[in-house]
Amino acid sequence: MLIEIRKLKLNLGTHAVLRDINLTLEKGHIYGLLGPNGAGKSTTISVITGLRSPTDGSVRVLGLDPVADSLQLHSRIGVLAEQAGFYEWMSAGDYLRWVASLYKIQPDQAEIAQLLSRVGLEGQSPAPIATYSRGMRQRLGLARALINQPELLILDEPTNGLDPRGRREIHDVLLDLSVNHGVGILLCTHLLDDVERLCTRIGIIAEGRTLLEGSIADLLSAQRAAVRYRLRVESGDITQRIPDDITLLARAGDWWHVEIASHVEPASAWRKLLDAGIQIDEIHREGGGLEELYLSVTEAKEVSR
Ligand SMILES: Nc1ncnc2c1ncn2[C@@H]1O[C@H](COP(=O)(O)OP(=O)(O)OP(=O)(O)O)[C@@H](O)[C@H]1O
After folding, report:
1. Would the pTM count as exceeding 0.80?
2. Is residue 125 included in any domain, yes or no?
3. Which helix (H) or strand (E) is 60 found in, with range?
4. Residue span of the structural domain in which 123 resides
5. Is the CB of 40 under 6 A from ligand 1?
6. CB distance 42 to ligand 1 below 6 Å
7. Cα 260 off chain centre by
8. How far apart are alpha carbons 216 and 123 in whole angstroms?
9. For the chain: N or C, fewer Cβ within 10 A?
């Protein structure tokens, strides 16, 4: 197991930032860590990389304690942080050689050129990093994370600032690392397209808790078992009148997102709504897919608050 987190809690000052995080990542898998702004994703990464000590719970990364075994851990992982800083006056090649020296590695010219080409920065070598666009910085950050041939890559928004072609190129690099080299990748992103293309497993967190974790295939097929609809009903709050067969997920103005258990015939559910005095103006069936799963899980959280 590359990452194993159980019941992680972290208080920062008086704020319980992480309340119950659970996450497991195996070799060769790409894990999508998802959740709304402020959910605790970056803070979870800071615990995984040993920057913060857990208040409670267990965290093992490559079988190590990220705080106590920090030096050993960092020689075996690669990290692309949300805000990547560089020495702006250096060229990419000089910068990567300097980073390599921290790992006591001495890559030759060809190896540096190969790494730059792998992330799509070939031919940029002589220009100072100060002249780089945001997308080029992301690529250089990824090259830096790969310099020590890590077993585990931790990437916070790796395709930020990249155009569609650049995103696709980075996808290909990550898939190659995972499929052909067995590298485990923890990918923190808001781009569900990236997740659907790359990840085999996801965890959705909100307010410092893991709400859902598992393989994408299992989660989506389980989701399809229950059918979701968007209903527009006469104005007014229907929360107190909703029959047991229908689960309320979220409200958006006059629209209500509901779920009907697989064993319930939708027509009979709508009849029960009418019996409860709820007039339905429109019904839209909502399909499956990761975006729907993400929205239903995070919106359900909002309704239950
Ligand atoms: N040093 C700190 N002291 C107190 N609270 C903090 C501290 N750092 C972060 N937080 C809070 O912890 C919560 C989680 O923040 P975090 O940056 O981990 O979220 P995130 O899921 O990465 O969000 P985003 O998607 O916007 O990057 C936020 O409410 C944030 O305000």
Report:
1. no
2. yes
3. strand 56-61
4. 3-220
5. yes
6. yes
7. 28
8. 38
9. C
